[in-house]
From TrEMBL:
Organism lineage string: Eukaryota, Viridiplantae, Streptophyta, Embryophyta, Tracheophyta
Organism: Zingiber officinale
Name of this chain's protein: Bacterial surface antigen (D15) domain-containing protein
Region: Disordered, residue numbers: 16-53
Similarity section: Belongs to the TOC75 family.
GO molecular function, one term: protein-transporting ATPase activity
Top-level taxon: Eukaryota
Compartments (UniProt record): Plastid, Chloroplast outer membrane
Membrane topology of this protein: Multi-pass membrane protein
InterPro entries: Bac_surfAg_D15, D15-like, IAP75, POTRA1_3_Toc75, POTRA2_Toc75
Domain Toc75-like second POTRA: 238-349
Pfam (any one): Omp85
Ranges for domain Toc75-like POTRA: 137-229, 350-431
Keywords on record: Chloroplast, Membrane, Plastid, Plastid outer membrane, Protein transport, Transit peptide, Transmembrane, Transmembrane beta strand, Transport
Main location: plastid
Length: 802
């Protein structure tokens, strides 16, 4: 196509329809497995071919589009894309304890631009599968005008012949393929084929274009699109502008009866209008390095061609979608016959945020949760005035899901029909029932000789729990539970706990995130302090009963760090097997009798202590999952400070620091079903105490969460403790095997515990172990060697060591 002179103005456009895509299935991702690949898809605009992508798409951003080219000024063109309404559906969704992305195919740009009708869309094709044979000899060229207007021709093949390059390629391999609405295997009439040729000839992409039909022996036609690609003046600079929320450029009609002077004035007016459009536009997010890359493309190419514009569009959109701007789309190219190419981008500006509550049937209803609770969980990038980003949508899902108030969560971006290029973010929520109760039964399993699991009792235990959540719609809750290890005779062992949780202490609109918790509790646990050493006769157990109240405030500094501080008032009683109060530890004598002069069980010496102390805890957890494996750092510091209130006026300071590192040893590709990396775990734990320390609060050495290969407290009870551990995890199939080495020591502080229970029960105060194991679901099966005795045993443990 010849370049336009300053005295001429040409209005040109083209249209096309997209190839039909199969609907994308919804994808659900558990909150415990956030490694699912949720990368944004690239937009597909049939006017220009989309860049190839090997990234999986879970959020449909494909915009069924048409393209148009119109002159913007005397020396230049405006290359325009417009999108027809896509299918409904799509977005971000999560249910229960998980979250995910679902879509039914389609895109975001619904009625943003006026669509141009396709010349031979799938809806215009002759319905049914019946078609007519051409009835001509094979392998001859037939002009469109010679085809019968009464027949329905089947197109078995589409080829593209570039006259300038003298090359022929299969249609799907040519970048101009999506400019053509015809598809191999389709059935078309002569009128439809002629309309397709007319559309291609007037689109402005080609200086010359023809459709040639070649007969085939099976009665079908092979279609060849022979063309000469349009070119424009070479450009040396590139400008990218954000035209979101601006009125899109319209194709301009020119009166053919205008005089040359009137036409020239009209063209100058168009030039001024476009310059003002550029001035009113906003700067785009495209970084300078990418813009420099486009400038290099322009300078290397020389003349601007349609294929070059395709490559520029693909490069620009690829950056946006790689960075999570899933709604961004190149809509126009302006100033094509000047020294500067202007790329107009609609980035997907958020104009409105809508929160809707749904009932069990999916109908919109009035929710109990106050909107301020939802809004405070949303990242700023998801609010009006920002550009929609797919990562912000996922962050909103995680934040809202952490409230534990909803059974289903959806974040759906959709086009704003009142603002061109705008995005409305819809958040749809299904609330959980406010009140719930449940009963569970269980039989306890405890490690016996050599760590073998044994049934502690044939009498079933169980828990009755209830919860009233989201009181007043402010996420306040009351949770209670009653537990007994003997449901047949629960009065022998009955414990309870009632918690009241009051978030947003400083107000729901205050950015400071503090939560108040109050608890009332009664519990019983077996004390590992009064336990025999290795090879010792069985020691009568001592049970620790605790009853009291606890109140604290937790302040979340970030998602990874929090600080908790509060007060604890409790009564502690030590009891023997008969539930009678015991004041001293007991051990068996060689004569078969019992020694009742063991270490005192309480600070007061009466078997019952009462005390008030302050408690603080600070946690920094930067761990994350890579294909199911934990990677990162976790540090916890806890402090208990006695206030001198209670039995014998206890004043003490008990502190401990735990630090764990999960080191990734090899880089792996992240995604669902991918193998996790090998992990080296390094762990250290230090604890210390000064002042009045009751025996039941002494640090204990040995056990599945201290030094493996020993029973709970088998190594000693002390005022100061140091534990070091290393574990190497190697993935195999759907689990991992591991080897470990651990060491624990009392730092010589066992003698400082009142009554020295370590010496009394013949324990050594230190020990090491090593071994290997395999993770089987929630169970750890491991073989551990006790370095003190040099013997090994197989242990079965539940949960994680670190």
């Amino acid at each position: 196509m010849a370049l336009l002179s300053p005295t001429r103005f040409l209005q040109i456009h083209t249209s096309a329809v997209p190839r039909r895509r199969k609907p994308s299935p919804s994808v659900a991702c558990s909150a415990e497995n956030p490694d699912l690949d949720l990368s944004p898809a690239r937009s597909s605009i049939p006017s220009l071919p989309a860049a190839p992508s090997d990234r999986k798409s879970n959020l449909a951003v494909f915009a069924s589009a048409t393209a148009g080219v119109c002159a913007a000024s005397g020396g230049g063109f405006l290359f325009h894309f417009s999108s027809p309404p896509p299918p409904s559906g799509g977005g971000i969704g999560g249910g229960g304890g998980g979250w995910g992305w679902g879509s039914d195919g389609g895109g975001f740009w619904n009625n943003v631009f006026s669509p141009l009708p396709a010349s031979a869309s799938e809806d215009d094709q002759v319905s049914g599968v019946e078609w007519d044979s051409h009835g001509l000899p094979a392998n001859i060229i037939v002009q469109l005008s010679k085809l019968s207007g009464l027949k329905r021709y089947k197109i078995s093949e589409i080829l593209f012949f570039d006259r300038r390059r003298s090359s022929t390629v299969v249609g799907t391999e040519d970048s101009f393929f999506e400019m053509v609405s015809l598809r191999p295997g389709g059935v078309y009439t002569k009128v439809q084929l002629q309309k397709e040729l007319e559309s291609l000839a007037t689109c402005g992409m080609f200086e010359r274009v023809d459709l040639d039909c070649k007969t085939k022996a099976d009665g079908t036609l092979a279609l060849t699109v022979s063309f000469v690609e349009s070119t424009w003046q070479g450009a040396e600079s590139f400008q990218c502008i954000n035209v979101g929320l601006m009125q899109q450029s319209k194709q301009v009609e020119m009166d053919l009866d205008m005089t040359d002077k009137e036409k020239l004035e009209y063209i100058r007016m168009q030039e001024r209008d476009y310059r003002r459009r550029i001035e009113r536009s906003r700067s785009c997010l495209l970084p300078e390095p990418v813009q420099n890359e486009v400038v290099s493309m322009l300078r290397d190419q020389g003349k601007v061609t349609a294929r070059l514009l395709q490559r520029i569009r693909d490069r620009v959109q690829r950056w946006y979608h790689d960075e999570g701007y899933a709604c961004a789309q190149v809509v126009n190219f302006g100033n094509l016959n000047t020294r500067q190419v202007v790329c107009e981008v609609v980035e997907g500006d958020i104009t409105q945020l809508s929160v809707q509550f749904l009932d069990k049937l999916g109908n919109v209803c009035e929710g109990n949760t106050q909107l301020a609770v939802i809004h405070r969980e949303l990242p700023n990038q998801l609010r009006p005035g920002h550009v929609f980003n797919i990562e912000a949508g996922k962050q909103a899902l995680r934040n809202i899901n952490s409230l534990s108030l909803f059974s289903n969560i959806e974040v759906n971006p959709r086009p704003d029909e009142k603002s061109e290029g705008g995005i409305i973010v819809e958040i749809k929520l299904k609330e959980l029932e406010q009140k719930s109760a449940e009963v569970s039964t269980e039989w306890s399993i405890a490690p016996g000789n050599f760590g073998r699991p044994t049934l502690t009792s044939i009498q079933p235990g169980g828990t009755v729990s209830f919860e009233h959540r989201n009181i007043n719609g402010l996420n306040r809750s009351i949770v209670g539970s009653v537990t007994s290890s003997n449901l047949i005779n629960p009065q022998d062992d009955l414990s309870f706990k009632i918690d009241y949780v009051h978030p947003y202490v400083d107000g729901v609109t205050n950015p400071r995130n503090r939560t108040f918790r109050a608890s009332c509790f009664n519990s019983r646990k077996l004390s590992p302090v009064f336990t025999g050493g290795p090879g010792a006769d069985e020691v009568p157990p001592v049970w620790i009963d605790r009853a009291g109240i606890k109140a604290n405030i937790t302040e979340n500094f970030t998602r990874q760090s929090k600080f908790t501080y509060g007060l604890v008032m409790e009564e502690i009683s030590t009891r023997d097997e008969t539930s009678s109060v015991c004041t001293h530890g007991v051990r068996a004598l060689p004569s078969g009798g019992l020694s009742m002069d063991g270490p005192p069980t309480t600070l007061s010496g009466t078997g019952t202590d009462r005390m008030v102390f302050a408690q603080a805890n600070i946690t920094r957890d930067n761990t994350r999952f890579i294909n199911g494996a934990v990677v990162g750092q976790r540090d916890v510091f806890q402090l208990d400070q006695g206030l001198g209130i209670g039995s014998n006026y206890p004043f003490f300071n008990r502190h401990q620091l735990s630090s764990t590192r999960f080191i990734q040893l090899r880089s792996v590709e992240e995604g669902a079903g991918k193998l996790p990396p090998p992990i080296l775990v390094m762990h250290g734990h230090y604890g210390g105490c000064v002042g009045d320390l009751p025996s039941y609060d002494a640090f204990t050495l040995g056990g599945p969460y201290s030094v493996r290969g020993y029973n709970m407290g088998e190594l000693g009870a002390c005022r100061n403790i140091l534990e070091l551990a290393a574990e190497l995890r190697v993935p195999i199939r759907n689990t991992y095997i591991y080897s470990f080495i651990e060491h624990g020591t009392d730092l010589g502080s066992s003698k400082d515990v009142k009554g020295n229970p370590t010496e009394f029960f013949r324990r050594v105060g230190h020990g090491s172990s090593y071994g290997a194991g395999v993770k089987l679901g929630m169970v750890r099966a491991e073989y551990a060697v006790d370095n003190n005795s040099g013997t090994g045993a197989i242990f079965f443990r539940f949960g994680e060591r670190f």
